[in-house]
Specification:
With about 200 residues, the protein is an alpha+beta fold. It contains two helices and nine strands, in the order αββαβββββββ. The strands form two sheets. The protein has a five-stranded antiparallel sheet with strand order 3-4-9-6-7, with helices on one face. A four-stranded antiparallel sheet has the order 2-1-5-8, with no helix packed on it. About 35% of the residues are buried.
Length: about 200
């Protein structure tokens, strides 16, 4: 970092006033700053770009987790699959504990096939996490890269962007990147986290 000097405009998102309402500096903003620095030096393609924050609860329980995604490829290595990138590497809750302590069933937890960008070195794959709620709850999401794909570098391909999906009574609804809503018993939520961009041409 000795070769990097950061200058921020006063009042910007990176240097807000004391009166500004701010949130998610570590889990979101920091991710994009690291990608920006890496892009400037051509160190690696974009990683998933966020921590895919999922929060649900009611008057008696509260659950918060961050979900991993794909890491960007570098000039000499493939991106890692299903990893937090840059700013955290928190451990996700074991399914046995989650289902015992919270009103939820984990239907699927797996890597998201082919979600990393192609290239001489491939980007890492994201994650699929599929929950079913067995009580009425409040659900909040704070996610990124749902409209723009994590970019590839030096001819590498972009990765898949993330998706937030709600299934209710057999109907599928695509949720926004940031949303708070009430879910009902029997609703299902699927989060597909972004992959990492590829590096170089094949």
């Amino acid at each position: 970092m000795r070769s990097v000097k950061l200058k921020f405009s006063e009042g910007s998102i990176l240097s807000p006033s004391k009166q500004a309402a701010v949130s998610a500096g570590n889990v979101t903003t920091s991710q994009r700053i690291v990608d920006l620095i890496f892009k400037a030096f051509q160190w690696c393609a974009a990683s998933q770009g966020c921590m895919n924050n999922v929060i649900f609860g009611n008057d008696t329980v509260s659950f918060y987790e961050t979900i991993a995604g794909g890491n960007g490829a570098t000039p000499n290595s493939h991106g890692a699959h299903g990893k937090h990138s840059h700013m955290t590497n928190t451990r996700i809750t074991d399914v046995e504990i989650m289902e015992r302590e919270y009103p939820v069933i984990l239907r699927r937890f797996a890597l998201r096939p082919n979600s990393g960008g192609d290239g001489l070195f491939k980007g890492g794959n994201g994650i699929i996490r599929h929950l079913e709620f067995i009580e009425d709850l409040s659900l909040s999401l704070l996610t990124e890269r749902r409209s723009n794909e994590p970019y590839g570098m030096n001819g590498g391909q972009n990765a898949y962007r993330g998706e937030n999906i709600l299934i209710r009574d057999g109907q599928t609804q695509i949720l926004k990147s940031r949303v708070e809503l009430n879910v009902q018993k029997g609703d299902q939520f699927i989060i597909k986290t972004p992959g990492g961009g590829g590096y170089g041409t094949t």
